[in-house]
Amino acid sequence: MQWTLVVPLKPLAQAKSRLADTADDGLRPDLALAFALDTVAAALACPAVRDVAVVTNDARAGRELTVLGAAIVPDAPGDGLNAALAHATRVLRSARPESPVAALNADLPALRPEELSRVLDAATQFPRAFLADAAAIGTTLLAAAPGRELRPAFGPRSRSRHRATGAVELSLAAVDSVRHDVDTGEDLRGALALGVGPHTAAAAARLLIPGQ
Question: Is the Cα torsion angle 201, 60, 47, 161 positive or negative in sign?
């Protein structure tokens, strides 16, 4: 089974505000784009992935992600993350209703294709499933089988929120790269320790991070 992945990306100028202690206003948009580029490149290299669609209204991100091979779905609702994901899923399934769909965070710069494949293969066993983030509070991936609604509930404490919707939590070892999203400077240091993609490595080289 091959999956269609939906990757949500807010306008770059508004992204990654919690990195303010690590990156200034001029660099944060570049970091957010670098995270997304490395995430999408790794996802497209995953054998379990058929295609990747990024839901965004950011023109710069759209151009650069298209070059990688991602499709772009405009965020027509403009009403937050969950509305964007639900909208993009409807658009994609109108063309390919038989495809399983998974929402994947755009800030997984250390993502490994083989680890993502393990997560998606495990998700095929359930109507809906999710993977908790490294902090065991949020969610980095939410998957829905063909014919099942995605029902995204991202936001604060989304791990418990997705459990409450009936999604099954995936318990997998050795998939750290799929769990490690980046919101803070500490998160970024952790991702760098795991080993990030080339776009993030280049952007992070412009930072002076204690402990890097």
Answer: positive
Query: What is the number of other CB atoms lying within 10 angstroms of the CB of residue 144?
Result: 24
Helix or strand (DSSP H, E) at 128: strand 128-132
Quick: pLDDT tens for 99-144: 999 999 999 999 999 999 999 999 999 999 999 999 999 999 999 9
Nearest to 46 by CA among 98, 95, 108, 130: 108
Q: How many CA atoms lie within 13 A of 123 on its CB side?
A: 32
The SS3 assignment for 169 reads: strand
Domains along the chain with CATH numbers: 3-204 (3.90.550.10)
Contact 152, 82 (CB under 8 A): yes
At 212 the pLDDT is: 45
b/e sequence 33-56, b meaning 16+ C-beta within 10 Å: bbbbbbbbbbbbebebbebbbbbb
Consecutive H or E run containing 116:
helix 113-123
Q: What is the rounded radius of gyration, in angstroms, for the C-alpha atoms of the chain?
A: 16
The residue type found at 134 is A
> Tokens 């770059």 label which residue?
12
Inter-residue contact 205 to 197 (CB < 8 Å): no
For 12, the token pair is 């770059």
